[in-house]
Protein 1
Amino acid sequence: MAMPNSFTASAAWPIPADGALRLPLVVSSYTLGTEVPFRDRIEAAAAAGFDGIGLRAENYWDAEATGLDGRAMFEMALGAGVPVLEVEYITSWGRAADRDAAQQHKEQTVFSMARTFGVRHLNTGLIEKLPVESMVESFADLCDRAGHDLTIALEFMPYSGVPDLATAWRVLREANRPNSALIVDVWHWARAGMSAADLDPVPTERIISVQLCDVLATPMDPLRTESLGHRLPPGDGYGDAVGLVRALQARNVHPRLVAVEVISDELVSKGVDHAARTVATAARRVLEGAGSG
């Protein structure tokens, strides 16, 4: 049975004059490191003032290995004031040959996590570079496997099979599944060379999550190495996080949440508490800056 989250979200997005919009600010799983005990994860997020945390299947399995089950994780996180609001990450769904037993188990785990924590969308991406028609068909199948109660949120990544926003929107449009949506991440946005005009063809309601971070002055080679270990806190780099938030706001994009995904080996090496505080401060600064424009 799904256990819906109940919490009071902070103003984690520039808000209209009537103050009606309140969005949760979430610290994504990678931001705090891959080997952080569940209790340490939620304590660091709570101390930094986040409204919730993200959790990967691998984090979930690690917590299970310590004796926690999904309900215990749900209650522990909610009790700390940082419920699980983001679950991830489904990959290798593009070809039947890639959906081996391990991938199928991971997919089912993510579905189960979402229902356990009351999260209604799941993050996904596709590294393999396949014909668009093949990706469309496979993405539609993934949405069908998820079921009508869960939304599959597709993230474009410049080094992946879905390299930009236009491709991601084409996959969604042609798959034609109501339980599909898009993720916009500052790092991928900047490295894919996107501009505000690229948002114009996309219906605003299909952007379900925005991820804040930033990029180095010079791209690394390969790009994926930078993405998975050398991101900067939002506003501390060269990706114009404030500009992206303003562009989304100008188009009345109201995501379900704002996540902070700063995947940084250097930041994590300084400790989970330091990482949480640093990115929370940076994210609030970006959001406040965007709201003042």
Protein 2
Amino acid sequence: MKATLIIVNYNGRRLLERSVPAAREAARRGGHRVVVADDGSTDGSVAFLQSQHPEVHVLRLRHAGFAEASNAAVAAADTDVVVLLNTDVIVSPDFLPPLLEDLAAPDVFAVGCKFVNPDGSLTDALGNRTSGSWEGGLLLIHHETNPERLRARCPQLYANGGAMACQRAKWLALGGFQALYRPFYWEDVDLGYRAWGRGWQVLYEPDSVVVHEQGSTIGRLYDREWVELMSAKNAVLFSWRNLLDPAAFRRALCSQARWAADDVLIDGLPPRTRALWAALRQVREAARGRAEEARERTCSDAEILFRSRGGAA
């Protein structure tokens, strides 16, 4: 089984100096291909790749954002498996075979790697054995950091988009990352949730290890407060698009309405309410996605969370 390793890049030339050689070495061991999907960089990334890594294919795109660049690269790939990698992720030389083995099962959509910090620790590492619960109107995400619970392959809610392998055909069937969550964050949560909703599995693979320098991509390009607002906005949009259980959805809307009421009373505009107002600008887009999801879903929201924690179907 062959794979295309896709590194999505936007003005990440310095990060490419480390991530590309590591990806090339991993790909070389199995005769796989490395592609850099360049999202309209202006920092000399393309020239650097053409000069230093001419064997790496560069997909030059007009700047449209992470989701669109990822979707374009997956659509252009000619392998059954695609592996998405952030520029701040350094893969281990043997990270790929365990992913390919897991993806051989017909009901598996995606497999996520084991993320470790540059010092090899798991403290505050994000993306490992993810799970979720609906609380206070939003899906709360848990990232496992206990080493004892990260030793075995198991189901998880979603595979972190910084290092995830997917069956390309299923990606295309799902429509890939949704532009609803522009400019970034929650695309991978949405994709995994929808995959479970169609009866496909998402797995965590401890034998596929990558080093993640957290905050090296988005954190260097955007203001922290604005990044947090976009993440909070997309958490609201996720609930509107994906929470299909009628009673649970009503409870979520009531919780979100209470945010606004409480914030009016204190005469302020805390981040959660600013996020709600920002999400309202995309309410029609979210409603269209919700209608599509209702047509395609084969199991309930409760079943999605139960199965993604390892519960039997």
Protein 3
Amino acid sequence: MTAKPTRTINRLHFSDLDPLRFEDLCLSLIYSLHPWNEVRHYGRTGSDDGVDIFAIENIEDGTQRTWLTQCKRFAKITQADLKKAVDKALKNEPDVPDVFLLIVSCDVGRKAHEAYVKHAKSKGIAYAYLWSQSVIEAKLYSERPDLLFSYFGIQLASEARKREQSLKGNLALKRRIQKELLTARVEQKDFLKLPNKRFCSSEAIIHSIDDDSYPDTHDPEEGLISGWFKLEFWNNYYNGIEFITGIRLIAERDGRWTIIPSEREEAGIETHRAWEIGRIPFRNIVDIDVGGDEFYPFPHIYCRFAEAGMPYEEFVYRLMDQTYFPLDAGDYLPYQEFMKSA
């Protein structure tokens, strides 16, 4: 038996990038590295004084670390060049940074790397990192395929096929929903207030694809929802279908809102009833049986309960007397925090 040929990928040609574009690539890699308090890019100004990127990292214990980064798009670099990069970066800095990161577009030998780290520490730098060509490539392929495509036009085949199949599947499902579920014609004024009037039925049965109890009812395990249940349609949205999952009491004050955990009305606080809308995205909808069966002769929707044991990607809330737009999630406060600010 002859061995199948293997597919090889050539090394990335960082030399094809303009030096400023190489800096941009380095900046993009750094942005996703840590939760930064501040990031400054000096290189493009043409007067970096040895510092291309300055950043302040937030540490978990509440402290901060300063980073200085120098980017070198060189075909080769010597031990002396590495030391010189450190000296140049520190020359005009009032304080020694906690971290110095040198990013180079070529390979670096072990001795040169160790000499660079030793020299940086002799200058008072606690952490000295060096990203060589192989390190940058590994980060692009394993962590940032989006940058791999943006800077080099390389799209990993499996990821590309996965995204393409997902997009095609979502669009096909969207067209099917429009054709088979949204069959009723309604006037514009009715659509704005009651978009569910467009559906072929007011209700649907939601099934988990892992459920085998239907049509019997059973008590779900603690912390889980039933494997099948009935919901009322509300609307379709850009990423799937919306369903009414309940009615909640909403309190509002000074542009902020919260969900009151019981039906009691809080004294001195304006309250409203609101629809709780569960959004099931296309990615969690496996199939639709429009006609249903002898038990429930209306649409059955089979879903992946892939979001913490539920099919919903999120919940939104719409005031029952003003259903045009959901309440702004950015104005939401947890109940206890809302009541403390009263």
